[in-house]
Specification:
Residues 205-364 form the VWFA domain. This is Mg-chelatase subunit ChlD. InterPro entries: LolB, Uncharacterised_CoxE, VWF_A, vWFA_dom_sf. It comes from Actinokineospora alba. By secondary structure, this protein is an alpha/beta fold. It folds into 3 domains: 5-102, no CATH class; 170-199, no CATH class; 206-367, Rossmann fold (3-Layer(aba) Sandwich). The chain contains 15 helices and 11 strands. The protein has helices spanning 5-13, 25-38, 61-71, 74-87, 92-95, 97-100, 107-116, 122-151, 170-176, 219-232, 259-265, 274-283, 305-317, 338-346, 356-367; strands spanning 154-160, 181-182, 187-188, 195-199, 206-213, 238-245, 249-251, 291-297, 321-328, 334-335, 350-352. The strands form 3 sheets. Strands 5, 6, 7, 8, 9, 10 and 11 form a 7-stranded mixed β-sheet that branches. A two-stranded antiparallel ribbon has the order 1-4. Helix 13 links the parallel strand 8 (291-297) and strand 9. Helix 8 packs across helix 15. It is globular and about 70 Å long. The termini are far apart.
Length: 369
Amino acid sequence: MTDPSPQRWRLILGEPAEPACPLGGVDARRDTALRWLYGREEDLESRGVRRGGSGESELTTVDWLDEVHRLFPKETIERLERDAVERYQIHEIVTDPDVLGRVEPNPALLRAVLRTKHLMNPDVLAMARKIIASVVRELVDRLALEVRRSFSGTRQRRRSNFRQARNFDFRATIKANLAHYQPEQRRVRITEPRFVSRTRRQVDQWQLMLLVDQSGSMVDSVIHSAVTASCLWSVPGLRTHLVAFDTAVVDLTSDVTDPVELLMKVQLGGGTDIAKAVRYGAGLIDNPRRSIVAVISDFYEGGDEHQLVRTVRELVEQGTQVLCLAALDGEANPNYDRDLGQRLADTGASVGAMTPGELAQFVAERLGR
């Protein structure tokens, strides 16, 4: 059995390493597939790499997808497809039905569909809807578990005889069993485990206004917000509103129960008028002291910053809890205008970043008060 390391290095280094390690067979096909995609880099000539030609032997997008699915493991395929769509803007992957039918549904493809669905004809759009449904179903299943856990009840310090792992009281157990400490083994022998009771939250009616920036850079946050709103919709004692905005404001609350339909209606791109969206959200409030306004944006305001700060201050002063949540990318890294964020924090708003699960936990804690 030969050592595969030289071939792997040849695939990584590309054509300049060809004299030292020529490729053949499957490795040569892998190199062709990689060169078809990454041969689009602008600085290849300065690095001494010859660009591929555009003759009859050039792979089509369909041929390339077929090849990578035959030649690479699943993790590599997902990375190649993501780079094709996001890095090199190869839109045939999401606008050509032959290509679209071969791509494995994944979050990168969902983002690409949302950005390019306006380019699709009805047949392709129907296929795209299936991709959105597949990815959204997985996201909803994942978040629904966190939401159920957040709203399942609060642990009380009252002792319980009902033994369940999630109600195990670690501190009380250690304290009750310290007499059984074994110095030679440095262990505490547990003879009397302790558990606490869990009572279901009794809640008054609350409102949650999710105001989501749908400008072009906000695609991940739009997806997360749609899924979050859908999962929170059926929570007892909570009325959820979902509003998307750019320079216009669109109330999507009627579609919250169907996140696929909701995402199909989202129009990514355009400017940003956060002040207008916050004013709209403020107009939905019935009881200020039982309301949460969560603004999800990068806070690069294209509207009136002074009016935005003024409206947020008024909301805080009337008792509404205002969350200014920074946009999160696919790796949950925050990206926002920190100067405006600081001005909003100075009004009393909570400014920061939350994953959808953390937002659900925040809402659950407020409802349980």
